[in-house]
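Sanity check. The docking grid for S-adenosylmethionine depends on where the pocket ends up, so I'm generating a full predicted complex first rather than guessing from homology. Inputs follow.
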Amino acid sequence: MLHDVESTSIGKPCTLPEQAWRSAPCVLPPRTVLRPVFERGEGSPPNCQTRRKCQPERPPHSCRPTQPPSATHPTPEREAELVHLPHSALTDYYADGDAQARQAFLRQTFDSTAVDYNRLERVLGMGTGSWYRRQALQRAGLLPGMDVVDVGMGTGLVASEILHITAEPHKLVGVDPSPGMMAQANLPAAVRCVEGWAEKLPLPDQSADFVVMGYALRHIADLAAAFAEFRRVVRPSGKLLVLEISKPEGKLATQMLKLYMRGMVPLMAKLLAREPSTPMLWRYYWDTIEACAPPAAVMRTLAGVGLTDVKREVALGIFSEYTARR
Ligand SMILES: C[S@@+](CC[C@H](N)C(=O)[O-])C[C@H]1O[C@@H](n2cnc3c(N)ncnc32)[C@H](O)[C@@H]1O
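Predicted complex below; grid placement will be based on this.
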């Protein structure tokens, strides 16, 4: 049951050997040319009733470079503990050491498979559906009246649950690098959908009470930079929630989950998807889970950029809910 929740606090030693996710921070690719199809249309201003497919905005100017706040610059020892790239290179999909190729692969993959995402997520999501997302947001302390940022908003599955709780679309901003994913989000017109990366959020300092990132952690190019950005954007005592699937603890459980996610899920995707690359996305999904930095390292990184009260709860042995405060 999802009530089977286990808590972990920061400080548990990392048991995995030194891995590539400790490697140097990535270089984000230069911004590409605005595609006219996603330009904001003329007409009446967005209101809270109208629902429509999300129309991703591009920030008007290049965002300022990501810098961890000076008050919390990690010491060299702490810096060595931070996770930058969350997993080692997956060379079945892009070349080792080529940060731009990884980024381009992700953007292309999410753009091209976006049309299948919601349907497959419903069929294959194993509890990561709307009910679970809403419960996790409530557990993390999301309340009406809060200004919320949904990082890696994709097709808006977390955003829809945020609105069930807050009912204030004008107080919600979604950020994602994939215009294709955001274009599938069917949200009230007052929700702002902005094209951008977690590592360089196109948002002002201290502009949110609650920042959430759902199932995008494994796709981030520099986790420490992204967490530092969350800290920059959230107001003092504001809250952060990061949802992610983690490998189960035991070998048998890991093997069984792998059998399902690396075998069954891509097969079912092949039967159900409209896009030929969708089964590959779901294979990639498992490969990133298997290679991902362990939860203790993620928690050290949250604490290492100056976030406080860092906690992790686990539902069903695999659904990690990382919470923290500014
Ligand atoms: C698996 S989807 C999750 C979407 C949604 N949050 C959900 O719960 O269904 C992951 C999303 O992360 C986005 N993403 C990939 N790299 C990112 C980055 N560096 N910063 C923010 N989002 C990123 C992808 O474009 C994709 O839409």
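Relevant for the grid: The first helix runs from residue 76 to 81.
Also worth noting: The pocket of S-adenosylmethionine is lined by residues 106, 110, 151-154, 157-158, 176-178, 181, 197-199, 214-216, 219-221 (CB under 6 Å).
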